[in-house]
User: Fold these one by one.
Assistant:
Number 1:
Amino acid sequence: SESYPNLERNKDFAKLSDADIEAFKQILGGNASGVITNSDDLLFFNEDWMRKYKGQSQLCLKPKTTEQVSQILKYCNDHKLAVVPQGGNTGLVGGSIPVFDEIVLSLSNMNSVRSFDNVSGILKVDAGVVLETADMYLAEQGFIFPLDLGAKGSCHVGGNVATNAGGLRLLRFGSLHGSVLGLEVVLPDGTIVNSMDALRKDNTGYDLKQLFIGSEGTLGIITGVSILCPARPKAVNIAFLGVESYEAVQETFKKAKNELSEILSAFEFMDRSSQVLAAHMIKQSHPLAQDEEPDSTGVSQPPEYPFYVLIETSGSNKDHDDAKLESFLENVMEDGTVSDGTVSQDESQLRTLWRWREGIAEASNQFGGVYKYDVSLPLPVLYELVEAVKVRLAEHDLISFDDASKPVVDAVGYGHVGDGNLHLNVSVRGYNKDVEKVLEPFVYEWIQEHKGSISAEHGLGFQKKNYVGYTKSDVEIKLIKDLKKHYDPNGIMNPYKYI
Ligand code: FAD
Ligand code: MLT
Ligand code: ZN
């Protein structure tokens, strides 16, 4: 785990006392299960999904109502106690984990669906509703949550909004900045801001909710989310393709937009290295495998294509969608853009194909750790970052898949290429400062030089706290700090992170 030798606890923050814990018990109405002080029980809240960041919180609070959240924050603000809001704790930048002894405020006991209108498609939920639960609820009514991601079984809708998560459906349904209609937020002084009844259109002044979408717990606690949900597509197809070059990935994207147009719902890419990592975890034959034999550990290598593409189509008329996809595939195979492919409509096959894409996050972490970079770049240069990083790691003699004495297993690229979003994962045998120094700030400088963003979707959190300047200007950073000071003058909300 990361240690923080160069960081000091802010002495302005009070240390937790027994009297504070008593006060919180009072606020939670004597609900003992909502006040966690046992060190074993606190382990989950003090460590992130990658096991990279570790905090030392002595207290986790699990309120059940917005009123309780308000009273807790007011108390913390009055007593200068620092707070880290936490949803499903699946964040990938260390934002959900305390750095020192901040109090964790978990939303997991606020997990009810508040209402759903099956004419407008407006869903209102508590922030702690798990994304997959919300989507399953919507499925029963013929609707779909406009966001999907690999962590859906654990992440919260509130956490998704707090990180402005992008995910696999952004290409089709756009970002949460568009689909979230209203929020209920508790400010650090306990004030409750409620725009849950907002309608689709509302031009009465500043759109305040936008400030909290992607604020990563630094301005207030989101307790309720109102979101516009589309009708659930009745026909879903996936094509999993092998292509010979990154140029061919881009060409396939261009043609997919042209020919599949309104039914195109995801366009993802994976390099071969990412599929090798996935093969080591999934231990089944690759979707495009011909007759590769598994080795003695049960792993069979994916075929030799340098890149793979996963295309999803979703629509309301199966025959129409099938015909469109078929003709698209015929065209791209015939003109040589795509070299190989397989198609599926069957629910369990769909899930298997997605696993070779969604599983890469977990597969990159299977050898002991992962350094993750989640970046936006202009499409023509997007993959060059992965190549540059591989060269640099080799120059420093740090990388080998087979030689266990080298700290880095491999550097892999994949992601939402349809949104210009690359995920670069450096899979390591353990967290290692030498590797980190070779990667950072190199990766951030490279992104700045190529006019990208150092975070496309995971946010800044703790990992990128010193690197905001690679994407935001000094003027923008000053405005961000001004807003933070205005809403959180004592700085109690998620301190030591990106502001
Ligand atoms: P947490 O991890 O608990 O918190 C994340 C941040 O939000 C923290 O800073 C926290 O303080 C803050 N926060 C949480 N809840 C609240 C709240 N109610 N009010 C205020 N602040 C709050 N992200 C993508 O964008 N796209 C992906 O495709 C994607 N795929 C993923 C796949 C896997 C396997 C994993 C592990 C993660 C993935 N992520 C992805 C990362 C993503 O940020 C999270 O999965 C998710 O959005 C975070 O939700 P959470 O409830 O787990 O939040
Ligand atoms: C993804 O797209 O798979 C996610 O953002 C998670 C990740 O890349 O690790
Ligand atoms: Zn992603």
Number 2:
Amino acid sequence: DRRPAVAAAPEPAPRRKAFDFTELPQVRQLQMQRAAAEMMGIGNPFFRPHDGLAAGTTTIDGKVYDNFASYNYVGLNGHPEVVEAARTAVETYGVSVSASRVVAGERPIHRELEEALARIHGTEAAVVMVSGHATNVTTIGHMMNKGDLILTDQLVHNSIAEGARLSGATRINFPHDDLDALERLLAENRHKYEHVLIIVEGLYSMDGDFPDLRRVVKLKQAYDAWLLVDEAHSIGVLGATGRGIAEHYGVDPNEVEMWMGTLSKTFSSCGGYIAGSRVLCEYLKATAPGFVFSVGLSPALTAAATRSAELLEREPERVARLQANGQHFLKAAKAAGLDTGPSAGYSVVPVIVGDSIGAVTLSNRLLERGINALPIIFPAVAEKAARLRFFITSEHTFEQIDRVVAVTAEELAAVRAGGSAVERLIQ
Ligand code: PMP
């Protein structure tokens, strides 16, 4: 018997520097999708670098485009007063506040911004955080718990879904903007949970429509629920002076527990906030992990947002221009036979294409015609709801909108006439 008395030790696995993530099926899937798109000659519309400021027009690689892909809703990004405020703040406080506000990061400009936001929303107080996404995640994650229920419109933003997941509360979606379904869910479930939080958006960024806030408020009162309204796409957009969906409907802002907003759109900065009662805002400042354990908003971003808020208050004609442009775009798009879904024609107007490859192809063809509008494709929306989204600003002109709508209708017809990219490839 030549067998060794003791079994040989297994060979040690070869050492490698770091894990190769292409071993993950989901990473390989993304790589395959990209390779397939390249084979079909569909350029990648994402991550395109812009040369400078993006407003009604933008410059990409030296060429000027009509821009319908930025959230610069009331045209304040790059406004001389906003730039000057940011510059002065950097000169006074430096680029960073270098600590959480709880420790050494508090600056007087943080209070000024929070006062301006509370004024605009008509609430007692506000609290600002370093990102809109983080604001939803930490606020919802922190305020709700296991044993609570969160009722969300099915189209709410990812940051709301993430916050709900973090909270450990039960989350139930209701079909988009179906307030009868919301009422049924409240009737069936209210008694089973300690706290119930309803979450809607002031304007939905996929469909460009908005809920009947008066009815939502009645429902939350009737069922003793809390309400969070995400005003990312409605502040500076809805209402005669841009104070959002409460102003649009004449709802008392103090009927709503939590107003959430971002600083990255109308306020031409970066960050997020909650506006509401003083008690709520003080509680979040003292305990919300995304506030307590994160750096304070940078001086430039803080001052830029404050000046933008002041300009919004001072120049309501910006809101009127945005609203006129949104209505004009919607009317022109409908007249041209485009499918704009349920859009109400304010900050967001989708043009539904019906398949992801078609939406990407249309976006690329528009780029060739000098128009920057980006696709939303599966899995962000259902395949048959793949679309282009047009973000409207006060800086667009009617002539520009007319041309863009006409070219979009023409190119969409050409995309449809050519069949899908897959069909073309196998022909
Ligand atoms: N809420 C909604 C409805 C949004 O659309 C967004 C981002 N577009 C956010 C929150 C997150 O805001 P931010 O990009 O400022 O982090």
